[in-house]
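look at this:
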Amino acid sequence: MRGLHLLVWLLALTWLVPTASSASNVRLVKVLPHFMDRQGRVALNPNLYERDAYQAYLRAHPAERGGLRFEVQWKSRELTHLTLKVELRGNQGKRGTTGADVANPKRCGAPT
């Protein structure tokens, strides 16, 4: 159930951020949430099948989780730097958690 709430908020983030920033023509292509283990890994091997299997394992074993990472792919013709903000809300409390980071266009797929 917790994953469903997280998915709903991620979808809301995906739909709301491009609308709020439509003046600057920023488009979110996709947002991938990944659980990280205590060593900061999202997969044991650099393989998509291995990553998906390890993510299923981390979802089933919450004690093994060390964090949550979001891979955001965005596109913009005008902007070269963008500040991405993620707001997470769970079902444990009423306060949300907010994180912000400056996106690097070379890593995020924005045209240079």
